[in-house]
Design brief:
The structure is a single chain. The relative contact order is 0.09. Helix content is about 35%, strand content about 20%. It has 3 domains: about 80 residues, no CATH class; about 70 residues, DNA primase, catalytic core, N-terminal domain (DNA primase DNAg catalytic core, N-terminal domain, Alpha-Beta Complex), CATH 3.90.980.10; about 120 residues, Dna Topoisomerase Vi A Subunit, Chain: A, domain 2 (3-Layer(aba) Sandwich). It is an alpha+beta fold and about 325 residues long. About 10% of the residues have low confidence.
Length: about 325
């Protein structure tokens, strides 16, 4: 039977100072109170395996390496723990400070081998123009297309939309076929990833607009990010908070009002300001277009607090 690691282990000591005393299991793991849930977790749902360097939080569903846990908790597992982040006056300085650490723990996905820059006049280029993108958008987001070839090596007709950090490194990508409804994504857990996050914070320090899809985020503006679905995960919200986001405008598709308010409520619980943008039924920012969407943001966005959530849910 594997023995539980000693409390004198610096990694265990760092976690203990932040989370409280752990309880050992017969398999050699340590159970800590979950930091990702409301109230006190008396049953200790956060399981840490120090020898393997992994964790799993059975309360929130989050899991990964100890480096990722350290990132979420804002602690240094090799030295003394540092306190959780508080809002700073200069949020841009905070973003730059956290950049290298965030890049280290986030899962990355290199661009596919069949990626190439969009060729002017190509099928993909015409598709992007029809969706309202211009050359500046294509270059800014590093959008590409599949290389031509023979048989299974022919990737023509695939548009590749990478999520790049501020250093131009790909962290995630989404690809779709412009001829038929088919998609490709890297084999990376997307629950932790927020598309365009670092580029959005470089453009608008401390504040982002959260959209569902990647085309919606591009249409919404360069301060927008994509959650890749209407269910924005707690891990994605934690990633945004740790990166320096302090104000979130939630603009999910028009048929996701419940999810919009749920996301805003969870933003409030972790210390971010939130507002919501009601969109027309079955419409998203890409359908509406950038100019009309920005008009809605400027004129129809509503601040959310614990008092008006009930009235907003009745809309």
């Amino acid at each position: 039977m594997e023995l539980a690691p000693s409390l004198s282990d610096p990694r265990v000591a760092a976690l203990t100072e932040v989370l409280g005393p752990p309880s050992p299991t017969s398999s050699g793991e340590l159970c800590f109170p979950s930091p990702f849930t409301d109230g006190i977790d008396k049953k200790k749902h956060l399981y840490v395996n120090v020898s393997k360097g992994v964790f799993c939080d059975f309360k929130s569903g989050q899991a990964g390496t100890l480096q990722y846990l350290a990132f979420l908790l804002a602690v240094d597992l090799d030295q003394a723990p540092r306190p959780r982040l508080d809002p700073l006056d200069d949020l841009k300085a905070q973003i730059l400070q956290l950049g290298s650490a965030a890049e280290f723990v986030r899962p990355t996905a290199d661009l596919p081998e069949w990626y190439q820059p969009v060729c002017p006049g190509s099928e993909v280029h015409r598709y992007l123009v029809e969706r309202g993108l211009n050359r500046s958008d294509i270059d800014y987001y590093g959008i590409g297309e599949g290389k031509p070839g023979q048989g299974e090596e022919d990737h023509r007709g695939w548009v590749v939309l990478p999520s790049l950090n501020r250093h131009g490194k790909c962290e995630y990508w989404v690809s779709r076929n412009v001829r038929q409804k088919a998609y490709r994504n890297p084999k990376v857990d997307r629950r932790h990833h927020v598309c365009f996050l670092e580029k959005a914070l470089e453009y608008s320090p401390g504040e982002v607009i959260v959209c569902e899809g990647i085309f919606s985020a591009i249409a919404a503006g360069r301060d927008a990010v994509a959650a890749l679905g209407k269910l924005v995960t707690d891990s994605q919200l934690n990633t945004m908070y740790q990166a320096g986001v302090r104000r979130v405008t939630v603009a999910l598709d028009g048929d996701a009002w419940k999810e919009t308010l749920d996301t805003a409520e969870r933003c409030l619980k972790i210390g971010m300001q939130a507002r919501v943008v009601p969109l027309p039924t079955n419409k998203d920012p890409a359908d509406i277009g950038r100019e009309q969407f920005r008009f809605l943001v400027d004129n129809c966005a509503q601040d959310v607090d614990s008092l008006n959530l009930i009235s907003l849910r009745m809309l």
